[in-house]
Design a protein that fits this description.
The chain is of the alpha/beta class. It has ten helices and 17 strands. α7 packs parallel to α9. The two termini are 43 Å apart. About 7% of the residues have low confidence.
Amino acid sequence: MTLVRQHLIDPEICIRCNTCEETCPTHAIVHDANNYVVKHEVCNWCGDCFTPCPTGAINGVRMVSTPWSLDDQFGFTSLPPDATPEEGGIEMPAEVARLAAIATAGEGGTVVAPRSAPKAVVNLFTPDNPAIATCTGNMRLTDPDATSDIRHIVLDFGQTVFPVVEGQSIGIVPPGVDERGRPHLLRLYSVASPRDGERPGYNNLALTVKRVVREDNGARKLGVGSNYVCDLERGAQVKVTGPYGTTFLMPDDREANIVMVCTGTGSAPFRGMTERRRRHMKDVPGRLLLFFGARSRGELPYFGPLMKLPKSLIDVELALSREAGQPKRYVQDAMRDRADDLAALLRSDKTHVYICGLKGMEDGCREALAKICGDHGMAWAEEWERMRGEGRFHIETY
């Protein structure tokens, strides 16, 4: 009997963040309401999905005599065991095996954490064994008449040890069941506070969550996870998993320049990074430069507190696309307006670039960086590869 290697996704630690499906160049990864799965006949072992996975769930490789079908995989609650090889079978390509090993070890593959970043703790709590947190704060961040309802949520963990560092995420499991009678899958949210908590000395953290409302054939449909979190009342008990994330981390280097590009709730990890600097790294040589995009000032979370921060701490460029009486301006426009400053920063080995927000912003940001580099005598492709390899270039879009 000849065995073959089949690429599977571990349903017990998968957080359903959709990163693998978005990344896969052959569209081999699909999902239903239960699991993310891999089409065996389509997967070419390119390895592109291994390194972005925040939990390592993507690395569920098994030796099989007959590949598991999609229906089989959709029904998995845990991974099946390996079959026993008798004749060697087909080996995983060496480079993919290397990436898989790196991803399993939590090193982030070719996208690594900054060298000075702290060691991040991950996967302490699972959907089967969640931490229980208490909602101690729920405040609307956007104007009352704004289209977007974005909330600042504070969760307190009491006596439960739940360590996070800037750039990590947590999962929240909404109560109840879906239309198929199954428990709801967890939702992933970036932590918006620094490692010492939203309030120093308290075992808590903050989230920045937007209420999702969709139109489905003329019907108004509410996002299950976001509406559950946005409607939390003080004192409510919340099931939390994680923490997650080993690469999108803040450097602890006092000389690090941090360029942050975001839209909407993509600001969450950058709020944590900025607060870390404000509390513990005042008057450091490293710069903070933030490009923050929203439709208008009223739609921009944390607008008031952000505007009160001194420029000596953070240099802020707003990009408002629907501000009354103003031309449309997007984050890539703001980046081009600061081309000289960005070019100078990109020449420094101390500069880290983070991009977080809507998927549609990613190409525009890359194009802006390529144009800035080209106009200043640098090759963006080379700069990007070097920065990524050194843990100085990170993108998280959704």
